[in-house]
């Protein structure tokens, strides 16, 4: 059986041995594993990526060993050391970092690596070594209109070249293009009829445009038929979403749900209530599907201010699958579930998605729409 660990070639100019490094494949598996462990523990994880100058790789100067030994010392008993990019970028995972001390930990790591290299070189080697530090979970921006930063180095499983992903995504995208094109042509008369009703029901635009967060934290403009008065105050929805997310792990009686459900909302127009009840207000999102911002099946795309309330593991619903018009949550539970249960359904779909599952969800959607379960 092939050993997971490899070292650097022998170097006659170096007296200290090279530390053992995980191969690239196994190191990236460790990133995924430690990311999930951080979600469970509530602690932070710091990953260091050190890009070695070409001279170190070609000439095998002693600074090469200095970098690796410095990272090995930092790793101690809990860190994980390996190749992030084989023979080019060394990675170090430092788990179980106190979230309150992330800044200090990053400073200490950078200082240790550069201090170890400087005595070994007279040509400014320390200045030529690229050191990149990534923190998981990523800090949540204080500005509710700002999308959290995302570095895919922390998510090797989301890379386009990750085994088994590219072909599945290609087939799913193909189905989205074909079906969304057909649906747009089929529903053109319905679009025109609804547009007239919306325009006659109250002053304002026919379409409601809203910035949502899509796959891999990419914001996009989502379209719906306007179902509210143009002057409606959206703080009510903000408060409801905050309550729904933050109280998800608490006991929720039917009485409490009735208090916070957005039923009998005076902001909604008469025609808007019908559109929401039948989900016809969602039809313009077929255009989002055709443009590639959404898929026919997937988790619902969150609002920017929702992300501020998310726990780290909640973000998986926008990282692991493209948002959709319908999904497992819509046909199984809709608003009858807690937020945590909704996220678990979304993650279950994202991790088991296939064309067959998409077809089954699409076939189950009309029944959910007609029954109006969870609609408001």
What can you tell me about this protein's structure?
- The chain has 376 residues and is an alpha+beta fold.
- It has two domains: 5-137, Reverse transcriptase/Diguanylate cyclase domain (Alpha-Beta Plaits, 2-Layer Sandwich), CATH 3.30.70; 166-371, no CATH class.
- Helix content is 46%, strand content 14%.
- The strands form four sheets. The protein has a four-stranded antiparallel sheet with strand order 4-5-3-6, with helices on both faces. The protein has a two-stranded antiparallel sheet with strand order 1-2. A two-stranded antiparallel ribbon has the order 7-8.
- A hairpin with a 3-residue loop joins strand 4 (80-85) and strand 5.
- Helix 3 runs antiparallel to helix 4 (102-117) and helix 6 packs across helix 11 (285-291).
- It is elongated and about 75 Å long.
Which ranges are low-confidence, i.e. pLDDT below 50, for 5 or more consecutive residues?
5-17, 58-62, 253-261
Please give the order of strands in the largest beta sheet.
4-5-3-6
The structural domain count equals: 2
Count of runs of 4 or more consecutive helical residues: 16
Roughly how many Å apart are the termini?
Answer: 58 Å
User: Major beta sheet, specifics?
Assistant: 4 strands, antiparallel
The number of strands is 10
What is the average per-residue confidence, as pLDDT, rounded to a whole number? 81
Strand content: 5-15%
SSE string, helices as H and strands as E = EEHEHHEEHHEHHEEHHHHEHHEHHH
Q: Radius of gyration in whole Å, from Cα?
A: 26 Å
Q: Rough shape?
A: elongated
Which structural class should the secondary elements be placed in?
alpha+beta
Helix % is 40-55%
């Amino acid at each position: 059986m092939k050993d997971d660990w490899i070292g650097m070639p022998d170097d006659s100019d170096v007296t200290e041995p090279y530390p053992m490094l995980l191969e690239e494949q196994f190191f990236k598996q460790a990133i995924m594993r430690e990311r999930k462990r951080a979600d469970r523990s509530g602690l932070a994880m710091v990953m260091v990526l050190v890009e070695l100058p070409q001279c170190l790789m070609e000439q095998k100067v002693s600074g090469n060993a200095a970098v690796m030994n410095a990272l090995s010392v930092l790793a101690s008993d809990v860190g994980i050391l390996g190749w992030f990019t084989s023979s080019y970028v060394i990675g170090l995972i430092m788990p179980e970092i106190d979230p309150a001390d992330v800044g200090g930990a990053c400073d200490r790591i950078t200082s240790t690596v550069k201090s170890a290299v400087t005595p070994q070189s007279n040509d400014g080697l320390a200045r030529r070594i690229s050191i990149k530090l990534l923190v998981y979970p990523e800090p949540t921006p204080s500005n509710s209109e700002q999308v959290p930063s995302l570095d895919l180095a922390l998510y090797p499983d989301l890379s386009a070249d990750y085994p088994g992903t590219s072909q599945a995504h290609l087939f799913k995208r193909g189905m989205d293009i074909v079906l969304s094109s057909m649906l747009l042509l089929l529903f053109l008369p319905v679009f025109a009829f609804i547009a007239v009703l919306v325009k006659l029901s109250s002053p304002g635009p026919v379409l409601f445009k809203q910035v949502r967060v899509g796959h891999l934290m990419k914001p996009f403009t989502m379209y719906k038929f306007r179902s509210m008065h143009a002057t409606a105050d959206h703080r009510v929805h903000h408060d409801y979403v905050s309550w729904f997310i933050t109280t998800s792990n608490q006991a929720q009686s039917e009485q409490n749900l009735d208090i916070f459900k957005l039923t009998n909302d005076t902001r909604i127009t008469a025609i808007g209530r019908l559109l929401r009840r039948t989900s016809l207000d969602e039809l313009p999102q077929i255009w989002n599907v055709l443009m590639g911002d959404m898929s026919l099946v997937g988790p619902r795309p969150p609002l920017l201010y929702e992300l501020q309330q998310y726990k780290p593991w909640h973000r998986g619903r926008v990282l692991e699958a493209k948002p959709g018009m319908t999904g497992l949550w819509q046909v199984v539970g809709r608003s009858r579930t807690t937020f945590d249960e909704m996220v678990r359904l979304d993650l279950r779909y994202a991790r088991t998605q296939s064309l067959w599952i998409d077809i089954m969800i699409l076939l189950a959607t009309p029944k959910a729409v007609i029954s109006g379960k969870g609609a408001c």
